[in-house]
Amino acid sequence: MSEAQETLRVLRSQSLSSAVQDEIEQRILSGAIPAGARINENGLATELGVSRGPIREACRGLVEVGLLTAIVNRGFFVREVTAKDAIDVYDVRASLMRLAGETLAGRVTDAQLESLGDLVDKMDEAEALSDFDTFYALNREFHDRIVDFAENDRLRALCDGLVKELHLYRRRSLLQGGGMSVSNSEHKEIMKALRTRDRNRAGAALEAHIQAGKARFLTAADDDQSSNQGEQT
Within 13 Å of residue 77, how many CA atoms lie on the same side as its CB? Predict the structure, then answer.
């Protein structure tokens, strides 16, 4: 049994289309299915051992969350993000994370600080090993825990609505402007601010971190554009 088929078996408590959607989503967010790629419905159906119906239903669900686009008579494609899309999402995300930082600083527990600090330490270890995939997963967990610890259900819902779209280009931004090392130095500044329980400082540190990520993304986008122009000359 393939790993993908085992995933479906483990997720048997979900509906088939939901399990298929989770599998396709994971492949998109991991970069296994890159931006602009067409979803091979027949190939996935064969690989996962399902009919094309659940594949199509899963793809429609991924269109709704912003990971795929549907083109009539052509199929489903992984969404390609424009610079304008990225700037808009980063700016909204920065404001939301500022709120998360301000909220958490006023209520953070020692156990929560230890939990977040442990993730930062593990990111240092991943960076030392040049283990980008591990670093990226830990980075996601660090931000998710901050939002979870803030215990604001509306904030959680808004962040969840942005986070998947953000991952379409967030991986690339972590490889720019000093990469993992610079990103984790920003995490350490966030930790310093949270430990002081200073709401304004914590909010500002988180907002600055997201805006720095935006700058790294724009650098990556400029590099891609320059590379493409060079190939055409």
Answer: 12
